[in-house]
Amino acid sequence: MTTTLLTLALLLPAAPVPAPKDTTPKGPPPRVVVVSVQPDGAPFIQHTRTQMVPEQRARAVQVGQQVQTVTETVRVPVMVTVNLMLDGKGVEVYGADGKKIDPKDVRKRVAKPVAALISADGKPVDPFYLRLAREGTLVIVVPATDADGPPLRKDFSAPDQPKKDVGPKQPVEKRLPVEKR
């Protein structure tokens, strides 16, 4: 009898386990950052991001029968270290449980550098990702201004964004490779 029940249990299909309701996140995953403290006790985030910076380059071009040197502006990716103050305008800090944390309490929680999560799109982080966070983890939401990261304070940040590249001002008929000597 026991053998028969065991055989039936192995051969009969098991009932499917219902999938959790929130299997698909509704937003992008948060980034992991380090929250540090300034000497005056103000918490801030320091992270690295890629910024496109204009650079002047000279190259040889053939216009008609003449070879001329043309200087043009190109945009070059540069890694920039950025500091974001957590007590700034529009910055909200939450716990991993989703409850908002008062800015005064953030100073108490950050006595030394700690890891935190920052929203990638300026909206609250989806609970799907918060399941991975440990209790006590800070979750920071900053209004998104561009795809490169959170907005920057002018007095404690990287240089202003460069203006758009306008390219060469004269028509170029044929481009020749530049030989380095």
Structure notes:
This protein is mostly beta strands. The chain is built from 3 helices and 8 strands. Strands 1, 2, 3, 4, 5, 6, 7 and 8 form an 8-stranded mixed beta sheet that branches. The longest helix has 10 residues, at 2-11. The N and C termini lie far apart (91 Å). Mean pLDDT is 76; it is low at 146-176.
Spell out the key features of this protein.
181 residues, mainly beta, 12% helix
What does the overall shape look like? Answer: flat
Query: What count of helical segments does DSSP give?
Result: 3
Element order: H for helix, E for strand: HEEEEEHEHEE
Q: How many extended strands?
A: 8
Distance between the termini: 91 Å
What's the alpha carbon Rg, rounded to whole Å?
27 Å
Unreliably modeled segments:
146-176
Mean pLDDT level: 76
Strand content: 35-45%
Main sheet summary: 8 strands, mixed
Structural class: mainly beta
Into which percent range does the helicity of residues fall?
Answer: 10-25%
How is this structure best summarized?
The chain is mainly beta and 181 residues long. Helices cover 12% and strands 36% of the residues. The protein contains three helices and eight strands.
Ordered list of secondary-structure elements with their pairings:
Blueprint: H1 2-11, E1 31-37, E2 43-63, E3 66-85, E4 92-95, E5 100-101, H2 103-109, E6 114-118, H3 127-130, E7 138-141, E8 174-175
Parallel strand pairs: 6-7
Antiparallel strand pairs: 1-2, 1-6, 2-3, 2-8, 4-5, 4-7
